[in-house]
Amino acid sequence: MKNKRTVLVTGGCGFIGANFIRMLHSDCQDWRVVNLDKLTYAGNLKNLDGIREGERYRFVRGDICDAELVAKLFVEERIDTVVHFAAESHVDRSITGPGAFIRTNIEGTFTLLEAAKKAWLGGNKSVTQPCFLHVSTDEVYGSLGETGRFNETTAYDPRSPYSASKASSDHLASAYFHTYGLPVRITNCSNNYGPYQFPEKLIPLVFNNAMHNKALPVYGDGKNVRDWLFVRDHCEAIVEVLQKGRDGQCYNIGGNNEKENLEVVTLICDLLDQKLGLAPSGQPRRSLITFVTDRLGHDRRYAIDATKIREQLGWEPKATFEKGMEETVDWYLANRKWVDAIVNGSYRQYYAAMYSEQE
Ligand code: NAD
Ligand code: TYD
To answer: Phi and psi for 53 in degrees, rounded to 5?
Structure first.
């Protein structure tokens, strides 16, 4: 079988990357995937259980900052498409240790762009129709007040070390299009949720703490708003951008699901109460909610205006928040071992220091 595309997926062992590879594996059977992942604390080979190495899939453990390795992969594998997910992705970690974010998110993206430029625009142009899709975040636009939504022309105003590093990488990607003509497309999406999300992020963290009768930490007053996007909808949007998008363009991807954090946490508690009965204490799980000190520089509200991708590429999110959350909670319930392995493994000390058992 001739592969229609050979896609270098970076960060394919993380949350969104693994969902994306799984989707390609079932829906785009003539695409070959090369997954380049360093396996940091957030990368997990178990996220790709069932996907075997062979004609359609190769895993390479490595760092996107390793210029030699990345250049070799472009040539050896005749990469014609890049979907660049690899990043340090957790805002709280970027506040306590920004260095890794600068390195991976900025230098790593630069390394990939350079390799793509050499391979695709250098003397030996053996690849037809290359495409470099850089996956970014709505956090680059900063924080909204009570009204308004981010669109593709909103000025960048990143406010955490994480979002500043992503903004920087977006600017580099865009510069490579304008300066060298590298066929770059950028997507800026809102908060994802769904299977395989690392349990330091709000939704899987609350699920896991609720299952262990631990405090459910809500930062500040719990009224910060995020626009939740089901990961499968996000992955479908990326395929649309690859297939129908235009080079040099940015596309905002949002879930049309603006929720305050407190609503999200309460919904998880209520779903667990419905499915499992009340907590062992006989109390509804909402009673575990604990307001804690706010995150430094905590952005108040994010919301995406996804008109452009809807009108130009025909993409819309399919999942309602209620349906997507029910599917997510069911997945975490059915995959307790996956969560437990992380929480009892390399993440254990970090986790234990943060969350003690409720009396
Ligand atoms: P994640 O933290 O779950 O996974 C990141 C993956 O990248 C891991 O597998 C990790 O091992 C790998 N990685 C990290 N540094 C690397 C390096 N130097 N070289 C190679 N691999 C490396 O992240 P995620 O939530 O899946 O996010 C994926 C992308 O989507 C990121 O670029 C993130 O900024 C963006 N994004 C995420 C969200 C979200 O809600 N999760 C929202 C908007 C944008
Ligand atoms: P998070 O999942 O870390 O994503 P991001 O910071 O990229 O939006 O957090 C989502 C929201 O939930 C954010 O407003 C911070 C808040 N939050 C809590 O209230 N408690 C928590 O324990 C965590 C991890 C997040």
So the answer is: -65, 145
Residue 298 CA: which ligand 2 atom is closest?
14
In a domain, 244, yes or no: yes
**H or E element: which one contains 58?**
strand 57-61
> 283: CA distance to ligand 1 center in Å?
36
% residues pLDDT > 90 (the chain): 91
Give tens-digit pLDDT for 186-200: 999 999 999 999 999
Task: Calculate how far, in angstroms, residue 287's C-alpha sits from the geometric centre of ligand 1.
Answer: 32
* 17-36 per-position pLDDT tens digit: 999 999 999 999 999 999 99
CATH assignment of the domain containing 151? 3.40.50.720
Q: Is the CB of 218 under 6 A from ligand 2?
A: yes
Mutate to test the pocket of ligand 1, among 38, 89, 233 (most ligand atoms within 8 A of CB): 89
The answer to whether residues 145 and 224 touch, using CB atoms and an 8 Å cutoff, is no
Q: For the chain, what is the largest distance between any 2 Cα atoms, rounded to a whole number of angstroms? A: 70
Q: Classify residue 296: in a domain, yes or no.
A: no
Nearest CA residue ID for atom 43, ligand 1: 137
202 lies in some domain: no
Say if residue 15's pLDDT is above 70. Answer: yes
Per the structure, how many domains does the chain have? Answer: 1
Would 324 be classed as within a structural domain? no
Domain that holds residue 97: 5-192+229-256+301-319+346-354
Is the distance from CB of 227 to CB of 255 less than 8 angstroms? yes
| pLDDT per residue as tens digits for the range 271-322 | 999 999 998 889 999 999 999 999 999 999 999 999 999 999 999 999 999 9
- 256 Cβ closer than 6 Å to some ligand 1 atom: no
